[in-house]
Amino acid sequence: MTADPDLLSDDSVPRRSGASIGIRLAKLVISIVVVVGLCLAGKSAIKQWQAETGKIETQIEALGNELAAAGEKGEATSGDHREAILNEQAVLRSALPYPENLHWSRMAIAAVLYAIGLLPSAMLLRRAVVSFGGCPRWSTAIAAQTIGHVGKYVPGKAMVLVLRGGVLARDGVKPMTSAISVFLETFLMMAVGAVVAAIATAGLPVPTWITVAAVAMGVAAGGPTLPPILRFVAAKVTRADPATLAADIDWRLFFAGWAWSLLSWLFIGASFTVLITAVPSADPLPPIATLYPIATAAICLAMVIGFASLLPGGAGVRELVLTSVLGIAIGTAHGLLAAIAARLMFIAVEAVLAGLCWVYLRLDPSGFKPENDDRRVSIEAGIKT
C-alpha cells in the first residue's frame, strides 16, 4: 500500500497554526471592542447622573441664597416663609442621589430580578437552535445569550450575533443556525415587549406617539417571527428542505417564544419597579400596584425603541422614552434619575454575568473545538440525521 503524500505532508501544521493565531487575534479584537463599548456607555451614564445631581444642588443653593440675600438687605422674612424654605431644602437634600441616600438593599433586589429576567431569553434561544437542527447544552445556550448582551453596547448590534454565534459554535452549532436563532429570539423579545408596552399604556395619559410607536414596533418585530414568514426566510437562507422546516418551525415554537419573552419582560419590569423605589425622590411614590404596570410599560418600550435606534445600548433614546412615560407617575426628574440608574445597573449586571460565563467557558473542557475535525464531522452528521 502506498501512503498518501498529503497525509505525510507537514503543510497542514502551519495552516492550522495560522488559523489558530487568527482566531485568537479576532477574539482579542472583539474583547477590546466590547470592553470599550461598555466603558463608554458607563461613562456616559455617570456623567448624566452627575449632571442631574448638580441640578438639585443648584436648587438647594438658590434657596440658601434667597435666605442670605434677605438677611443682608435687612428684609424681614416671616417665620412661616423661612420654615418653608428650610423644609424645601431638607427635602431636596434627601432627594440628592448621593450614595448614602440610595436604598442599596433594594438595588440589590433589582439587580437579582434583572439577572433572572435574562434567563428566559436563553431558554428561547436554545429552543430556537434545537428547532433549526442544533443541539447545544443548556449551559452553552445560557452563556451565549448572556455574553451576547454586552455586544449591544457596540454600534450596529452585529457584535451580539458574533458573540452568541461564537459561543454556540462550541457545541457544533453552525453559523447560519445561530444567526437565524438569534434573529428569532431577538425579534420575538422586541415584539412581546412592544405589545406589553402598548397594552399597558393604552389607558395612560402618555403622548400619543408612545402608544403608536409601541403598536408599530410590535407589528414590525412580530411579523417576521410568524411561522409561515420565518419558514420562507429560513428556506431562502439555509436552502433546507421545506418539509423539514414546516415540522421544526411551527406555532408551538412561536407561542413558546411568546411565553418565554413575556416571562422575561415581567421580571425586567419588576426589577425596574424596585429600582425606582431605590432612588431617592422629593415626592411620594404611588403604590407598587400602580407603579409596576407603568414601570414595566416604560422599560419595555424604552428597550424596544432603543434597539430599533441601533445606537449602542439605545443611548439617549431609552432615557427619553422612560422620562416621557414615568413622568405621569413619579415626575420627570426622578424618572430621569431612575433611567440613568437602570442603565448603570444593567451594564453592571450584564458585565458581571458575562464575566462569569466567560470564566465558565474557559474552565469547561467539554466544549466543541473548531480544530477538532473528527468531532466536527460527527456532530454535523448527527444533526443531519
Q: How would you summarize what this structure contains?
A:
This protein is mainly α and 385 residues long. Helix content is 77%, strand content 0%.
List the main descriptive attributes of the protein structure presented here:
single chain, cell membrane, membrane, 0% strand, 16 helices, mainly alpha, 77% helix, transmembrane helix, 385 residues
Question: Can you describe what's shown?
Answer:
The chain is mainly alpha-helical and 385 residues long. It has one domain. It is 77% helix and 0% strand. The protein is built from 16 helices and no strands. Helix 8 packs across helix 12, helix 12 crosses helix 13 and helix 13 packs antiparallel against helix 14. It is elongated and about 85 Å long. The two termini are 34 Å apart. The N terminus and C terminus are likely disordered.
Major pleated sheet: none
Q: Would you list the SSEs in sequence order as H and E?
A: HHHHHHHHHHHHHHHH
Q: Unreliable segments (pLDDT under 50, ≥5 consecutive)?
A: 1-9, 369-385
By DSSP, the count of extended strands is: 0
**Coarse shape:** elongated
What portion of residues is helical?
Answer: over 70%
Fraction of residues in β-strands: under 5%
End-to-end CA span = 34 Å
Number of helix segments?
A: 16
What's the topology here?
Elements: H1 5-8, H2 12-72, H3 79-95, H4 104-117, H5 119-131, H6 138-149, H7 158-168, H8 175-201, H9 208-222, H10 227-238, H11 242-248, H12 251-278, H13 288-309, H14 317-326, H15 332-363, H16 373-384
